[in-house]
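Lab notebook, bench 4. The sequencing result for the construct came back, and we need a structural model before the next group meeting so we can plan mutations. Quick request posted to the team channel:

Model the 3D structure of this chain.
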Amino acid sequence: MQIPYQGWICTVVGFLLGACLVAIVYQMAARTRARTIAEDLQRQIDGAKREAENIIKTAQIEAATEAIKKKEAFTAEANQTRTELRENESRLSKREDVLERQTELLQRQDKAVKQQEQELERRVRNMEVKDKQLTVLIAQQKNQLLKITGMNMDDARELLLKRLEDECEHDMSALIQRKVEEAKEIADDKCRAVISAAIQRYAAEQTCEVTVSTVDIPNDDMKGRIIGREGRNIRAFEKATGVDVIVDDTPGMVVVSGFNPVRREVARLSMERLIQDGRIHPSRIEELVAQTRNDVNHKILQVGKDAAVETNVRGLPNRLLSLLGALSFRTSYGQNVLRHSVEVAFLSQVMADELGLDGSVARRAGFLHDIGKAIDHDVEGSHPAIGANFLKRFNESSIVLNAVAGHHGDIPPDNPYTPLVAAADAISASRPGARRETLERYIKRLEKLEEIATSFKGIESAYAIQAGREIRVIADANQIDDETAMKIARDIANKVEQEMTYPGEIQVTLLREVRCIEYAK
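Done. Here's the predicted structure in token form:
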């Protein structure tokens, strides 16, 4: 039994020794591990310290760098601020100097203004005193003048206004005379040369044919046949021709009356053919009138074509040529209108060539200027407006339209050809013998001219000469001076233009003569 007990003790001892050994080994291992951990920890601590030192050094370097940069920036900004402050200080100094000078100047000006105000007040007081003295003096002079002249205030005022009016008229007359002389110096020579050349280069007949409206009959028995039974023949003739037939006691003739010259010509030719034929009855009248109308229309067209060829105006349609041909049966104060249009065409061309303008355009405008007279019996209005409106349908140029519409001054000219056509129209109409008037109208026109001239103050007498183309006015030299004479001549011309109708132009010649007579004894 002891042996097992010893074995158990050995086992326990062995176990204890093993446990101690294990404890010793474990303790040694723990010490070794702790020492290793301590060493690692120390190494980590040392590394952390070194890293911290590096970070601190880096941060210190960066902070120093940043501080240097900020210091440099601050220094630069401070320098710039100092510079700006110095500049502002300099500007302020200059401004202060300027303000000081301006202040000094304003003070001097203020002082001068005050002195001027004082001087002005002194002058105003003196002027008031002088004004009162002058008022008293004028009143005394007025009273003295009124006592001397025996005139009242109204008479004196009227006399003063009359003197002022005379002085103004004198100055106005002198101005008019000076301006007219200046204009004449520039325009007279050129106008005279152009118009003289036009008149000399174109020579036309001095008299023109007059349209005849009477028909000769072989005997007075023919009058009864023309009238017909109960007047049926004459009624048929008047209805077919559109004219009036006057059968009176005048021997050997029948009068054909009508406003339309073409109808009158158709009626005249038809009447002559009826008298030659001898067969006078309504049906024959209608047949012969229709045939005669066709013949006259053909003749009119041919006359228009011949005139266009004569004036070398091309491109006109037959309608316009017919109207131009119809003008050969129209007269104006005895002047044949077609021949007048041909004259105006050539005169316009000559003057346009002299002035360096297009002669063909001027010739065309002059040839067509009176075309409205061919239809003014059927259309209401003046012949220039009628002609211009009619030519618009045929696409005539604006130059021709303005010349046709404005050759009597109805509209203002917009090109140089319109005044040329107007001048050529006046030249053709005012040639001696170109137009005629009845004796009664002629005498009335002369009397009206003389009446207008003598209606002005200071005119002694007036005489119409050269068939009414000129009025000679004799002025009283004691009432009218040279400058006033010029104004009165202009006033007479203006009054003639306003109150009279006449072809061409009328020259007003005012004569003022001073005769001094003395006797030697």
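The domain at 439-512 is CATH 3.30.300.30 (GMP Synthetase; Chain A, domain 3).
Will bring this to the meeting.
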